[in-house]
Amino acid sequence: MFEALWGWPPPVLDPAGPYASSVTTLTWVLVAMAVVVTAIVVVALWVAVKGPPHLKSKLGGERTIWIGGIAFPGVVLTALLVWGLTLTASLSHDITGSEMRIRVTGEMWWFRVEYLDAAGNVILEDANEIHLPVGRPVVLELRSADVIHSFWVPHLSGKKDMIPGRTNLLRIQADRAGEFGGICAEYCGGPHALMGFAAIARPPAEWSQWMRSQRLAAAGPARGLADDPGRQLFMASGCGACHRVAGTLANGEAGPDLTRIGSRLTLGAGILPNNRGTLMGWIGGAQSIKPGNRMPGYSMLSPAELEQIAVWLEQQK
């Protein structure tokens, strides 16, 4: 998991975009205020215990209580609240017509990703990876299919809850290319700690090329030969009941879309690097790797059969 998420825990004070920068600024100001208030309290305690009598009498006076106990915290906390809301207001503004939109749905325990056009129609489906163009703000429509989750990419924005029956908006932006780890930041059940994803930022031209290639691949002809042993085993084992692979009879929606699984960086919602060995291990023993997730282990398959399925899945790009 450490390897798959590119540095764990994700750095929370290393912004790579304007929305994360505003959150970082707010964090540092709150930390500074906490230090100042703590210092004042410590000094007051020292005066109350060890201070000279004339300071003790002033500290216990009615005027000090009004100023230090009511006016000071009231003014400071109100000012911080107004400033903080103003600073971070742009993270959840309503959608404008020209913004790129991605819908992310929290599932137990992975992330469903849908790229939307300007009218809100789904143009591409994926799972556990979000591909972003560098330098362009993206509006995320955050939902949940089951329980409360929380979406968080510390490098790129603040975090926001994913609540059943509600759509929350969150803007993110990457000002440099790279791969950034994200997590579910709200306890959502047993495998919560193993619910991660990757945000991958590319230069605009490279991102546009990636989007064109992915849409063409998803709309393309049947994937792999019908007599491919891996494909036959995949279908015969019932994998298509939960997973979709475009161009095949696999149309399940309960689990992640596997149409482009061969091009993903990770498996199991960000917990394993994606390669043939981890694919075989995940198919054969998903419950031993991520206990409590909804993928059953296919221990009845032989190592040779697991490899055949893994080889075919590697070709799905």
TrEMBL record:
Keyword tags: Copper, Electron transport, Heme, Iron, Membrane, Metal-binding, Transmembrane, Transmembrane helix, Transport
Domain Cytochrome c: 225-317
SUPFAM superfamilies found in the cross-reference section: Cupredoxins, Cytochrome c
One cellular component (GO) term of this entry: membrane
Biological process according to GO: ATP synthesis coupled electron transport
Alphabetical list of Gene3D superfamilies matching this protein: Cupredoxins - blue copper proteins (2.60.40.420)
TM annotation in the entry: 26-49, 70-91
Family: Belongs to the cytochrome c oxidase subunit 2 family.
Name recorded for this polypeptide: C-type cytochrome
Organism: Croceicoccus marinus
